[in-house]
Design goal:
Elements: H1 12-24, H2 31-64, H3 68-89, H4 105-110
């Protein structure tokens, strides 16, 4: 994998952009707006990973002996897995330091 992708995950720029957008949480500090901004960041990550396949499709077909639709399906599956991972990992009100949601009034009631 590392050799085929120049030692870097091909979607790494997607992750960096996602992290910055996700942790900023949007321009509006309102909890509902912040939540919506984070969902949008997660969706943008999903799309960015899919777009990465488009940019590298020919190389991936040659490297792995796949057809173009096969490469698309693989990247769509990777993108979906990443989307669900960040949605699950970013759930609010857990009390864990890397999670968000402390602006929701009910979060204060659930924190240890």
């Amino acid at each position: 994998f590392a050799r085929a992708h120049d030692g870097v995950p091909p979607w790494e720029p997607c992750c960096v952009t996602h992290d910055r957008a996700y942790h900023r949480g949007g321009e509006d500090p309102d909890p509902e707006s912040s939540y919506a901004a984070r969902v949008a960041a997660d969706e943008a990550l999903r799309q960015c990973v899919i777009d990465t396949a488009d940019a590298r499709n020919v190389v991936l077909q040659q490297t792995y002996g796949l057809s173009e639709p096969d490469v698309d399906r693989v990247y769509e599956a990777i993108a979906a897995a990443m989307f669900h991972a960040v949605r699950l990992g970013g759930q609010p009100c857990t009390g864990l330091p890397w999670r968000w949601g402390y602006g929701y009034p009910h979060c204060w009631e659930t924190l240890p």
